[in-house]
Recover the amino acids of this structure.
């Protein structure tokens, strides 16, 4: 399944990340209702191919809005605690998804309860998280009996899943993460759901991985204020 428009896709991304419901992003300015749950930010502003959309949390005064818009304009790719704004990039598969490719072995495979020792060796105390059905499908690349990369659903909604990807530091730049991401993407499409990839703007390595895995940029966004502890 592919979202019908970039704005529809961005809406799915925002709803997945912050576990909220928002109206369609049809206009330039979106005012959220006071119905809970509400996002932790007061402003989310995104630039898309067809223009800009600005989303406001309820109760933000005109004076506060002017200040937040100035902070958003001045925010760089790295988090600045003085501004409290975070930049991100949302990515999707193109309207015509890339064809499945044959990858050199080892391939990614679904992980299950019997793989808990591999997951614990990969990251301590992580097996219960990765094997939770909420984070399915969880796929891993195993090399010489060692788990080196794991792709899972970090967030799941009835319509979409957002990717989480972890790769051992000493196993990076070898194509393992690309293999895992492509396998996860195919699994999500087979479920009839929309795969979502997002990354902080400063994470150039993740953005390169997204491109290598067939994803294209939908929007660049900035949101806040976000306390440093949540950044």
């Amino acid at each position: 399944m592919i979202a019908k428009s970039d704005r529809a896709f961005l809406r799915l991304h925002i709803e997945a990340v912050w576990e909220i419901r928002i109206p369609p992003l049809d206009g330039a300015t979106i005012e959220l209702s006071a119905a809970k749950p509400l996002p932790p930010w007061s402003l989310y502003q995104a630039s898309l191919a067809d223009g800009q959309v600005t989303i406001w949390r309820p109760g933000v005064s005109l004076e506060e809005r002017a200040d937040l818009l100035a902070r958003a304009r001045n925010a760089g790719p790295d988090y600045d605690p003085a501004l409290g704004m975070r930049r991100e990039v949302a990515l999707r598969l193109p309207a015509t998804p890339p064809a499945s490719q044959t990858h050199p072995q080892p391939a990614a495979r679904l992980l299950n309860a019997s793989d808990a020792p591999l997951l614990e060796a990969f990251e301590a105390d992580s097996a219960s998280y990765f094997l939770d059905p909420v984070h399915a499908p969880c796929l891993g690349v195993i090399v010489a009996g060692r788990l080196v990369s794991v792709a899972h659903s970090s967030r799941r909604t009835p319509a979409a899943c957002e990717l989480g990807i972890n790769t051992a530091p000493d196993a990076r730049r070898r194509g393992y993460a690309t293999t895992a991401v492509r396998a996860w993407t195919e699994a999500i499409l087979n479920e009839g759901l929309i795969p979502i990839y997002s990354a902080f703007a400063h994470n150039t390595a993740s953005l390169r991985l997204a491109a290598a895995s067939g994803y294209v940029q939908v929007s660049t966004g900035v949101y806040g204020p976000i306390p440093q502890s949540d950044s």
User: Anything to note?
Assistant: The chain has a mean pLDDT of 93. The first strand starts at residue 29 and ends at 31. Residues 6-93+221-230 form one domain.
